[in-house]
TrEMBL record:
Matching SUPFAM superfamilies: Cysteine proteinases
Protein family membership: Belongs to the peptidase C1 family.
A Gene Ontology molecular function term of the record: cysteine-type peptidase activity
Gene3D superfamilies per UniProt: Cysteine proteinases
Source organism of this protein record: Mycteria americana
Protein name listed in UniProt: Uncharacterized protein
Amino acid sequence: MGVLRWLAAAALCTAIRGQDYGLDRTFQDRTGLSRPPPHFGSIYHVRGVINLPYAEIEEPFEAWYNLTGNKSRIQYYGGQVITYQLAAVKPYGMQYKITPETTEKEVNTRKCFQLPGSKEDMVKAQSVFPSVDGFKFLREEYYRGRYCAVWQNVTRWAQKKNVYTLWVTNSSCGVAPVHYEMRGYNSLLGSHYDKYEISYTDFDNSFPPSIFDLPVNGEPGWAPPILPVGLGLMASPPCSPETKKCGFLPGSAAEHRVLVNPMEDLVGRHQPRAHEVFHHYRRRLGRRYGSAQELEHRQSVFVHNMRFVHSRNRAALSYTLALNHLADRTPQELAALRGRRRSGAPNNGQPFPTELYAGLILPESLDWRMYGAVTPVKDQAVCGSCWSFATTGAMEGALFLKTGVLTPLSQQVLIDCSWGFGNYACDGGEEWRAYEWIKKHGGIASTESYGTYLGQNGLCHYNQSEMLAKITGYVNVTSGNITAVKAAIYKHGPVAVSIDASHKTFSFYSNGIYYEPKCANKPGTLDHAVLAVGYGVLQGETYWLIKNSWSTYWGNDGYILMAMKDNNCGVATEATYPILA
């Protein structure tokens, strides 16, 4: 009886698949002379992992596909983000995206967004496999322990050559996908401009029709809590798309199509929609590049950064990322913005007077911006001068607390004049070395007296008679002591802090409480200097309010909330503040 059931299942597989794809047939088959291209059926379910090496991403997904009904569902990171492509919704189909959202009032509530199709761009069911049109049989080989047939397509346009390779093997239901990869070479750049891979597992041809029901109740303003995901099915009640009340996606129209169906760009062989997003980005920021070669290079960098941003946002983190003004920058260029030199040399700072604040009652939250102690966010430009911005920020706050007047102080004077104390201008420096210069030279120049910030090394030219804010020294806040740093901010104003900002998640931060498990927090591992202007609590999570110097285009108008948990990224490791005379 078991054999009969197996034969019936095999017959059903053959009927569904319409193909038998044995790898052990005749030599003629193995050379591909009579072998048909692989076909995965009109109905399937599969799991897999997307690997984007240039974006440093490995993203799990699960997909359900019904070509007959012209609908599909793809979910990412175990169902944290779910996308639907439903062609039957009139007039041109509809795409839905179910995603968690965290705001000031709610945490990880599911929200629905929709994107209707158009006459020019009708919604279709989205496969997670490439179309095999134009693929040619290449060879047979063992791949990751499985005997596979290898198919390949080579596509060329302009200076680009894309090689698409697909590995398939036998399963109980015929041919099954194993691995797919794309390698892109640009002769203009003389390098590989793109690379991504998709590995497939758990391929089968059956699932319940209810898998395409949206997991919502259809009420306006729907925002139920995230429910458990198990066996690929949502635990919440379904409803039909017709009764669903969904909002529209924020951002540019070009980016909408990528956000609601990211898989299309990975398995399609047409000019990716990501390039449309890049052109919109260029127009919005007024980007102009010096040559066709640089344009190609920047576009390639942007696409990798865009994939990273979108993928991390699908992971439902405690914060979100965005394609900011740094999205066309390479990792090397981003590193140049993190100009804190990690010398490890001891300084002459005073120890934090813990005993003076033993009985201090700290407020739950504090924001020195509300009291007028913080100057507007600036842009350090392509210059590793973050240390000078952190130093002047702490000096400005201390001077405000003493005089009641907020005076913008010059970063440029520190860049130009503090070489003798071990700073290297746009090639990096440390805050304590800047304090030492200020102490010796009787203060620091204001921005008004010294001149505007250049974003480049300049000639030292300060006027001694115009120096402000003499200091007697500076304090090293007890390393790793969260309470001490909070007390320092409360009693002395904004403090200069050093952090590990080497992760892409920091470069493209937009909002929410930033927590990066990969962050370092030890002395000698911190590569960026910023200003802690306050602290607070959001939905039970404590955070530092940090002012960066990468313009208001970065983060939340130039600011970031950084988690206090585990001294993440080292905010409390090397905090300092000046002592005014």
